[in-house]
Amino acid sequence: LGLALYAGSLCAVSGAAFLYHDYCVIGAGPAGLQAAYFLQRAGRDYIVFERSHAPGSFFALYPRHRKLISINKQYTGKSNSEFNLRHDWNSLLSHDRRLLFRRYSRDFFPNADAMVRYLEDFASLLKLQVQYNTAIIHVTLEKNEQAWNGHYFILTDQDRKNYKCSCLLVAAGTWVPNVVNFPGSEYVEGYETVSINPEDFAGQTVLILGRGNSAFETAENILGVTNFIHMVSRSRVRLSWATHYVGDLRAINNGLLDTYQLKSLDGLLEGDLEDLAIVKDKKGKLHITLRFYLENRNISAGIDSITLPQDELDNFATRAPYDRVIRCLGWKFDFSIYNRSLRMMPGKGNIKKYPQIKPSYESRGTRGLFVLGTASHSVDFRKSAGGFIHGFRYTTRAVHRLLENRHHGVPWPSTVYPITQLTNSIIKRVNEASGLYQMFSVLADIILLRENATAFEYLEEYPTGILAELEMQTGRKAQSGLFVIIMEYGRNFSGADKDVFYYNRAVGEAQHAWQSNFLHPVIYYYKRLPTEREMRLRPPDWPLPRPDAIHHIVEDFLTDWTAPNAHILPLRRFLENCLGTDLRNFFAESCFLFAFTRQKLPPSCQQGYMTMQGLVGSQELRQHAVQAGLLQDYTHTDFLGDRPPDSHDGSQEQLMRDQGIPVRPLQHLVNAKDE
């Protein structure tokens, strides 16, 4: 009994030692700070754990050569702040105008030190709840039926202090270096520790393992001082301008491609790194061979006893010895701190460096655990910008809105408009929205139609991957059909092997809009919400299931979709066909005419003229309408009865013909007036 009481007291003390918060965020990088901002604005109980003494510790070291590849465009010719975020790839979302990245650097490709300063100010100026010098070393679950998700998350730091939370947001990024083990890999230097002083490579021959931006960044730094540089990777080089994926090779780092193709000694090779082996000779030179040559051989016996490829093939590409071999293979997620009870499993194939998550960014293994930032990139890897600040600042906001609805009963933000504003609302968003523009094919605007299509509800930047769960995830109802607005590239325009500069690469005519290659708006119409089965069985490379109707707004060289004939008119007619109504706006005279000639008035007349609403006319407005043929010129006629019954030609007859109404004289109206 004494032992039982003692054990119980220990459990009580242990339970009291837990520091509880509703939300725990691991990592104070850009994604962690962005999540903290939204939680703080909503008044939620949260804490951010950061292992370093300051936020953004990753950027204090990387990129090693200090130049970011995220653009920082100072001028766009526009004053619209939402539009300008399309070309600001570094700022986080906030209400504070001081926290725009252009105030920290004027460079188009900024120095990483500016990002460190920016993140420090973001955390301090907004007074975010960040606990520094706290490294979370273990995460496990504690079952509890009263918890939000049926369990609590128990976090332990380096000082064995415990924390408990109901919802866990993992924003720790991918920071563990990718390492390939092969015979002789101990001679390889890592990107994270290699010298960044070009003089240390003067007169040397260098082999770089990898073909991403870190590999080319390293090559660019030493290109002018080395004998030559060779680069080996299992896949061919992927240029971002061809793939339209910002994580592929950017032009700022591709100097080695010039020297390779112009035969200035440097070169690129393809091969599986796990098949390689490195042998060091007595002079310290590194020789590349293949693993199978070393089978049943003793490397320590010396290079003379080892068969090299050039012994059998005298023009073997890498027969020249190297002075240094550098590994630049990127990073992966740290799975080591998560207990097996959380079932945090790596993805498969080319996304194995990321944890498995749903399109809602929630872990596939544990409810209530969400992955944010770079580590969430498996949702849109090589498809969109979710692994970078200018992408995950929007996906983080989307996750926050999902959590607000799930745990606090706050529906997804929306705005209700009359149906007459449908065309204008879409045109405004596709010309301004930065979330749609950056997270193309991943985030979408949703338009929920009200009964009889008299009004609609507009939801911004909802994840397309969970469209079937929209009612549950947002607290909104989709009972009368919906439109989904996303941005897309052409289906066959992006790829490492694509020629994106061919002569007829762009289209300009509205009738060929479906063949648009460059980023352009696409509107999907569904008479009902797609099911989960339809989402799973959607066509390959389609972000959404096959709709009841689809409309492409033709690509535009200026990304300005406001042309009346090329952009707005085809969109309006598409919407009218889907809704079976007339979305044009009419003058009062036309509405008056329709009231006597049609059984059903256009929505603009129903919601405007018939309710005594609308703009007060002026002489300038009337004159403009007359010149455009929209109104009859009454400057020489005072009364309708002063002219013959058949004298009304022009605009009224044409307007009726446009509506498919038989043209007949208004004799009965004239007679009524005479009486």
TrEMBL record:
Fetch the Pfam families from UniProt.
Answer: Pyr_redox_3
Q: Which UniProt keywords apply?
A: Endoplasmic reticulum, FAD, Flavoprotein, Glycoprotein, Oxidoreductase, Signal
Does the keyword field hold Glycoprotein? yes
Q: Which GO terms describe its cellular component?
A: endoplasmic reticulum lumen
State the SUPFAM superfamilies in the record.
FAD/NAD(P)-binding domain
Bias type Basic and acidic residues, positions: 637-651
Q: How does it assemble?
A: Interacts with SEL1L. May interact with OS9 and DNAJC10. Interacts with TXNDC16.
Q: What is this protein called?
A: FAD-dependent oxidoreductase domain-containing protein 2
